[in-house]
Design goal:
This protein is α/β, with parallel strands linked by helices. It has 12 helices and 7 strands. A 5-stranded parallel beta sheet has the order 2-1-3-4-5, sandwiched between helices.
Length: 282
């Protein structure tokens, strides 16, 4: 796996910490993880670039004004010219920033608006995977019949029709792999996030997971406030809120997947009324 160098302002550190935590220590060069106290930051930055193939700049008003970000941007351009940095990804986390505010060379790189760190890390992970040598990429073989069936079904749908897919079967037969290696490519979407509903989970647990992925930055007080508001709603309105969160994630170009271990099914194997209602709201 290739590493990503994360460049950010100190003000945006909370956002970037969430991203770095999702990606894991082994996949990032992040000042909190990699820079040593007492050492010259310039030396630490150069060392970080020598270990990275992807440069990720978190664009905000503060980061564009930051001396250290300016230094990292200039070094990233130099390392890119040398071929050490293979790709640049700019994630705009401040809605007041536009593409035109970025350095000229960076405007030619991939630029996305993503104020939600729990979703931004997926774009970074995808960029890292694309840089990974083919020999290290997972191989997907077989299931051609299922892929063909799915393509045929989708070809019969109008572009404006809304889609909810249900893949069922015994554990371990490859449902997730069919999903990961078929639907995202056909629909030109990024797969995930994945939400696992184990036997003891409820629809409120699903809402909590969705809420974390739709908050700009995790704030405990705001989190508890939204949870209290959710609990005060009627059951129908709660299910509607779950639908709204799923739609919000889809609008960001993702394909959310709920992995169910029995919570969404009745004893006869049919979908519960609640999940049918969520689908109707979408």
């Amino acid at each position: 796996m290739q590493k990503a160098f994360l460049s950010h302002s100190s003000i945006d550190k909370e956002y970037v910490e969430i991203v770095a935590r999702h990606l894991g220590h082994a996949n990032v060069v992040f000042d909190k993880y990699n820079f040593h106290i007492g050492k010259d930051f310039r030396e630490e930055i150069i060392k970080g670039f020598s270990e990275s193939k992807l440069f990720v700049f978190f664009a905000s008003r503060k980061s564009l004004e930051s001396y250290w970000c300016e230094y990292e941007i200039s070094k990233a351009e130099l390392f890119k010219i040398k071929g050490q940095i293979k790709r640049c990804l700019c994630i705009i986390i401040d809605r007041d920033i536009s593409h035109r505010d970025l350095p000229d060379w960076m405007q030619e790189s991939k630029v996305i608006l993503q104020p939600r760190p729990s979703l931004a890390y997926r774009d970074i992970l995808q960029a890292i995977l694309e840089l990974t040598d083919d020999v290290h990429k997972p191989i997907y073989i077989g299931r051609d019949d299922y892929r063909t069936q799915i393509k045929n079904v989708l070809s019969d749908f109008s572009e404006t029709r809304k889609h909810v897919f249900v893949l069922s079967g015994l554990d371990g037969i490859g449902k997730k792999q069919v999903f990961k290696n078929t639907l995202p490519q056909i629909l030109d979407l990024k797969d995930g996030p994945y939400y696992v509903l184990e036997e003891n989970k409820t629809f409120e647990d699903l809402y909590l997971m969705l809420m974390q992925d739709t908050m700009d930055v995790f704030d405990k007080d705001m989190y508890l406030h939204e949870l209290d508001m959710y609990r005060a709603l009627s059951e129908n309105d709660q299910l509607n809120e779950i639908s709204n969160k799923l739609v919000e994630i889809c609008k960001d170009g993702f394909l959310p997947c709920i992995i169910d271990y029995g919570n969404l099914l009745n004893d006869d194997g049919t979908l519960k009324r609640e999940i049918n209602q969520i689908v109707q709201f979408i």
